UniProtKB/TrEMBL annotation:
<feature type="transmembrane region" description="Helical">
    <location>
        <begin position="77"/>
        <end position="97"/>
    </location>
</feature>
<feature type="transmembrane region" description="Helical">
    <location>
        <begin position="168"/>
        <end position="188"/>
    </location>
</feature>
<dbReference type="GO" id="GO:0015174">
    <property type="term" value="F:basic amino acid transmembrane transporter activity"/>
</dbReference>
<feature type="transmembrane region" description="Helical">
    <location>
        <begin position="277"/>
        <end position="296"/>
    </location>
</feature>
<keyword id="KW-0812">Transmembrane</keyword>
<feature type="transmembrane region" description="Helical">
    <location>
        <begin position="48"/>
        <end position="71"/>
    </location>
</feature>
<feature type="transmembrane region" description="Helical">
    <location>
        <begin position="244"/>
        <end position="265"/>
    </location>
</feature>
<keyword id="KW-1133">Transmembrane helix</keyword>
<comment type="similarity">
    <text>Belongs to the laat-1 family.</text>
</comment>
<dbReference type="GO" id="GO:0034486">
    <property type="term" value="P:vacuolar transmembrane transport"/>
</dbReference>
<dbReference type="GO" id="GO:0098852">
    <property type="term" value="C:lytic vacuole membrane"/>
</dbReference>
<dbReference type="InterPro" id="IPR006603">
    <property type="entry name" value="PQ-loop_rpt"/>
</dbReference>
<dbReference type="Pfam" id="PF04193">
    <property type="entry name" value="PQ-loop"/>
</dbReference>
<protein>
    <submittedName>
        <fullName>Uu.00g117600.m01.CDS01</fullName>
    </submittedName>
</protein>
<keyword id="KW-0472">Membrane</keyword>
<feature type="transmembrane region" description="Helical">
    <location>
        <begin position="208"/>
        <end position="228"/>
    </location>
</feature>
<dbReference type="InterPro" id="IPR051415">
    <property type="entry name" value="LAAT-1"/>
</dbReference>
Length: 325
């Protein structure tokens, strides 16, 4: 009984706390983006390439966890990732197809209602709607439509994340709450005896075929995770916009990856253990750099309401002068 009811070491406690925080972040990861898409009734901000590659990475991660016999919590979390990815991809496909059909119907109705004796007006309409990169028209129209909304409606459509509302501060408070919930969750599980395990640690042989297959799947998932954000970064750069993206979604991803890496390093520094965890460390810690690039894009592409309102006032002013004249 003494070997079963042993206390945890400092390294195990730190690893458990960081792992619990990472688990809390991953569980809540997709909720902000799902809510943002639902409020805007659009998924224009997300790159489907980003989601597809991420799904492949999660599937490889789940297979690798099953083959290598990782902890049940890690395997369950990998399965949760796959289900969450499918839910988000389904939502995005639904909104993209629905909005594409609605835009096609509006175009057809506009063309049918256009009079033959108004060629200039029709030419102006087609030229104004035909410019821009793929997907940029939807995000630009969202921005133009939101500029005329009242504050309540703007908050419902998700257009309230501007420098005035200080989203970085609000989302940082949410991250602090994740840290608190994760730490409290570990202490509750510790008090409940979840960490009372035998002293003997089972070491898997790294030369077996099963272990080799698990390592290959782990590296495949790491490569997918590292490449997944590249399409999203390129999309943001081309459209010079991060509209439709939930900042908290990427902050939770950063938190989950960072605390996961800390949980691995604090648990054990044995070479065999580190070698076994290298693929998952690459997939988690490597994406932090790409997340920082997306954070920088959030900064430089943030809409400047004062300039937009000033230009809008200027346009309205010139129109009023033209009408009076």
């Amino acid at each position: 009984m003494e070997s079963i009811s042993r206390g945890v070491s400092v390294n195990e406690a730190l690893s458990g706390i960081f792992g619990s925080i990472s688990l809390a972040a991953w569980i809540c990861l997709l909720l902000p983006q799902l809510i943002t898409n639902y409020k805007a009734k659009s998924a224009e901000g997300l790159s489907m390439g980003f989601l597809a590659i991420w799904l492949f990475g999660d599937v490889a991660n789940l297979c690798g966890a099953l083959v290598t016999g990782l902890a049940p919590t890690a395997t369950a979390l990998a399965g949760y990732f796959c289900i969450s990815d499918l839910i988000l991809i389904t939502q995005c496909v639904y909104y993209n197809v629905r909005n594409a059909r609605a835009a096609r119907k509006r175009t057809q109705s506009t063309d049918s209602e256009a009079s033959e004796d108004e060629p200039l007006l029709r030419r102006r309409r087609t030229s104004s709607t035909g410019l821009g990169l793929p997907g940029s028209h939807g995000r630009n129209s969202l921005r133009q439509h939101a500029s005329g909304l009242d504050p309540i409606k703007r908050s419902v459509t998700g257009e309230d994340e501007t420098p005035d509302s200080n989203p970085w501060l609000h989302n940082s408070l949410s991250i602090v709450a994740v840290y608190v919930v994760g730490a409290v969750g570990w202490f509750v599980s510790y008090r409940a005896g979840a960490w009372d395990q035998p002293d003997g640690d089972e070491q898997s042989d790294m030369d077996t075929p099963v272990a080799v297959v698990g390592m290959v799947l782990g590296y495949a998932s790491a490569i997918c995770y590292l490449c997944a954000r590249i399409p999203q970064i390129i999309k943001n750069y081309r459209e010079k916009s991060c509209e439709g993206l939930a900042l908290l979604f990427f902050l939770l991803s950063l938190t989950g990856n960072f605390t996961y890496g800390l949980s691995v390093f604090t648990y054990s520094q044995k070479p065999d253990y580190i070698i076994k965890a290298i693929p998952w460390l690459l997939g988690s810690l490597g994406t932090i750099v790409e997340d920082c690039i997306i954070f920088y894009q959030f900064r430089i592409y943030a809409p400047k309401r004062e300039g937009n309102s000033g230009s809008a006032n200027g346009v309205n002013g010139t129109n009023e002068v033209a009408v009076i004249a």
